[in-house]
Amino acid sequence: MATNADPLVQDLLTRFRMYSSFGVVVVISNMLVIIVHMSHKEMAKKYILFTLLSVAELINGTSFIVTGVGREIQIHIGTYFKPLKVSECLMWFPWPTLLVFAGQLPAAMNLMLATERVIAVCTPNWYRHVWTWHHKALLGGFGYLICFVGYGVAVWASHLSDHINLTRICAVMEATGIMYGSIHFALVSLAYVVSFVVLLVIFIVTHRGKKPTPGELRRQKILFTVVGVSVIFVSFPNMILILNEWQFIDAGALFVGISYCMYATSSTFNLFIYLAFRKEFRNHFLVLLRIRKKQHHGSSVVVVPITQLSQIQRPFTSQVTRSR
């Protein structure tokens, strides 16, 4: 029986603690995005697909935390190296289900965001005058529905498999079977690649015609960056997992853990991408942090740094003093 002093166990513990740590960062960063969007009436509707993407990334972060903590508990109570069936892996522990959704939901939402851009470019008049946040919500809901169907297939595949797992790591492949797991990771990677190619084609087409508006150009930059980061940081760990499971490579436990943490890293970048490319997001984020305050001028709202408030208020105070 392996003990905590064994090198393999030490590598596993390091790997699982990395999962938990990265998961916390992912949860915090995406919670901030959701709070900024939902606390602003216009952004809550305008960026509902991005909010649903952040919810998907939040589930991804939660899966990292639950996976890391759950597996470490199995090691400490001495049951990690006890065999169990594939279906038992999926049904006995919470993290396999979370891992399935954590892989599929962000990929599906990136695909839905790319789909919206296709609709905007192919039917600009209809998109401008008819397309509303209700249509965006339906599109996002369709992406989530696809993932629930995918999970249903995962449950079915796990009950078909008669494979016995030698450990209770219960990753996607161990909990659903090697065939479903391989297809799962391949389709997730393919979804990001397809989204990126679609956005690239849209970028080329729109620039060949009339020059896109600054708003459209900004939206394209945001989506390019979001999807491009995911292609790099999701496709590589997925490839490592598939090759390792099919024994084309012999990756150690720690190397697999480090590779998979790249997946978590991609889920933290969206916050910084929005701060860099979306001025309204950045302004409202600073307002919520009390770094900036809102000034109301009639019906408009102006956001100014707190350091400038004294300069704004001083002339007003002098005027009031003179009037007295």
UniProtKB/TrEMBL annotation:
Transmembrane annotation, as ranges: 16-35, 47-70, 90-109, 137-158, 178-202, 222-242, 254-277
Record's protein name: G-protein coupled receptors family 1 profile domain-containing protein
Matching InterPro entries: 7TM_GPCR_Srsx_nematod (IPR047130)
Keywords: Membrane, Transmembrane, Transmembrane helix
Entry keyword annotation includes Zinc: no
Domain of life: Eukaryota
Species this chain originates from: Steinernema carpocapsae (Entomopathogenic nematode)
